Amino acid sequence: MLAVGGSNALCQFAFHGLTKQEERRVHLELIMQELDQTVTIGATVPTGFEHTAAEEVQEKLEATARVSKNRGRIYFDITTDKLLKVHQLKSLDNLFVVVKEYDDYQFKTTKEEVQIDWQELAAKLPWTNALEVWKLNNSIKKKKGRRKRTKPTKSDQCGNVGTKSTDTVPSDTEELWEDLEALEVKGNQRDVSSQPENDSEEEKRSEIQDQEPGETPLKFRVTCNRAGDKHCFTSNDAARDFGGAVQEFFQWKADMTKFDVEVLLNIHNNEVVVGIALTVESLHRRNITHFGPTTLRSTLAHGMLRLCKPQVSDVIVDPMCGTGAIPLEGVMEWQNSFFLAGDNNGTAVSRTRSNIKHILKRTHDGGSSSGLPLDIVQWDLCNLPMRSSSVDVIITDMPFGKRMGSKKKNWELYPSCLREMARVCKPGTGKAVLLTQDKKCFLKALSQTEGLWRKLHTVWVNVGGLHAGVFVLKRTAVVFGTISEDAMEPHTATGSQKGSMKDASE
Predict the structure, then answer these.
(1) Which pLDDT tens digit goes with each residue over 270-303?
(2) Cβ atoms within 10 A of the Cβ of 357, count?
(3) Beta strands 453-463 and 261-268: pairing type?
(4) Which residues, at least 6 apart from 357, have a Cβ–Cβ distance to it below 8 Å?
(5) Judging by beta carbons within 10 Å of its beta carbon (0-12, 13-18, 19+), is residue 160 exposed, middle or buried?
(6) What is the tens place of the pLDDT at every residue in 476-506?
(7) 171-175 long-range CB contacts below 8 Å, 24 or more apart?
(8) What whole-number distance in Å separates Cα of residue 328 and Cα of residue 373?
(9) Distance of CA 115 to the CA centre of its chain
(10) What 8-state DSSP symbol labels residue 86?
(11) How far, in Å, CA of 34 to CA of 184, rounded?
(12) Mean pLDDT of 73-97
């Protein structure tokens, strides 16, 4: 492998006869080779969707992810040149690079002995590669964060998310090259030449620890997530003791709020993982700028969409869209399907429109509603203005009866909306993916649909601390209306619904 800091003769040979642009390209390829190392990335995902997230990792990164014993986490190995693509995955909430994994850590029996263990652990860990990945990740995040801005408005100055700004996102390869070039320039300031392969870990650590004269030390904090009932210590105990050792080892400054580095200590029974955070806030905050009282996380919405496996030309409907989290997530990933979103609440429809406009501005479509295969309508979800057997997939977050609606109303709402969903859904091929925490009411309503739906499976998830189920249903071949109680007049749009559809399309 040719080192970035190789001899001038080798560099001149490599660049001989090339144009300036080609020379830059070759030079940056050499940098990429130098940084091309395999690391383990950990990610938090919506609980219950670990295997769905693993499927996306395999599909887009060609990497095999393993599901942690601690629910809501997966791990996978990648080369550092794929780090930007990791940030673009839709199933992952927070990312971290793994410093060290212990499958069966033997904790001492007394609190004092455990404290000594934590204090000694920091000096034994292989920090070097993880910190290099952290540096590269910071460069990528800064690049992604740059925006072209117009004259700031009052709402901009107040920190309103819905500003008149557009992302400048180059192609993945070009962006990564520019990031790597910036790293290489910084690295040359401290002579990034190839080191002998037999350099000791202690010597590499000393480079990380060294501070330039007058340079401000990094600020850090340790966050401990602990699960298990056989520990003689608390999460705070572990974070304090391990954090003190990290501070002494690196001579960093502890700061719980304005930190540069967040060291993670994840403990699940005897499984211990030490990592360094690569995200400051969850990646699920990507499409929604106008939130409602029960806005669904984008990562959870993506997992639900993957369960229904959208196909080209599918008509996908969210009849209770709220602020539009599900259709917006769908339209960004499956652009060859058509999405129709609706809600009976005018405020919710207005928020969805605002979120659509934000996405259109971000994708340089100038606010035109023709930029996305998505329409938004205000309607009565128990009397949809749609033809029978016209929908391929129905996917929605149903009211739990807590912050929205009530448990009592659900006993009337659920049977009605399930029957209406069955009417518009294609017999024999149609599918429904429905999220609800009101499991008893839902299963009772499902049993009352007279064979119109068949439950395939259920994914149990954690939604804001609530144990909820994602029910995957298949529309049976029974034709709606052939059962006596389903026989009714053909559904047509009311005057107000027609008006809402017209407004939404304008």
Answers:
(1) 999 999 999 988 776 677 776 666 688 999 999 9
(2) 18
(3) unpaired
(4) 367
(5) exposed
(6) 999 998 765 554 444 444 444 444 444 433 4
(7) 172/84, 172/85, 172/88, 175/84, 175/140, 175/143, 175/144
(8) 10
(9) 35
(10) H
(11) 10
(12) 94
31 vs 26: CA distance, rounded Å = 9
Question: pLDDT tens for residues 136-151?
Answer: 998 876 655 444 433 4
Spatial distance between the Cα atoms of 81 and 440, rounded to a whole number of angstroms = 48
- Contacts of residue 460, defined as CB under 8 A and 6 or more positions apart, other chains included, come to 48, 467, 468, 469, 470
- Distance, in Å, from the CA atom of 265 to the CA atom of 99, rounded to the nearest integer, reads 10
**Which is higher by pLDDT, 191 or 106?**
106
Q: For helices 128-145 and 172-188, what crossing angle results, to 10°?
A: 120
Give me the sheet containing 94-102, strands edge to edge: 66-67, 73-79, 38-44, 94-102, 271-277, 261-268, 219-227, 253-254
Q: What percent of the chain has pLDDT over 90?
A: 56
Distance of CA 388 to the CA centre of its chain: 35
The pLDDT value recorded for residue 358 is: 84
Residue type, 38: T
Q: What is the 3-state secondary structure (H, E, C) of 211-256?
A: CCCCCCCCEEEEEEEEECCCCCCCHHHHHHHHHHHHHHHHCCEECC
Amino acid at 236: N
C-alpha torsion 125→128→134→138, nearest 10: 150
| Structure-model confidence comparison of residues 197 and 60, the more confident one | 60
Whole-number Å distance between alpha carbons of 349 and 332: 19
Q: What is the pLDDT of residues 382-399, one digit of tens each?
A: 999 999 999 999 999 999
Rounded to the nearest 5°, which phi and psi values hold at 24?
Answer: -65, -40
HEC secondary structure over 330-385: HHHHCCCCEEEEEECCHHHHHHHHHHHHHHHHHCCCCCCHHHCCEEEEECCCCCCC
Q: What does the alpha-carbon distance between residue 259 and residue 5 come to, in Å, rounded to a whole number? A: 32
The mean pLDDT value of the chain amounts to: 78
The CA distances from residue 462 to 61, 109, 197, 230, 406, in Å, are 26, 33, 46, 24, 20
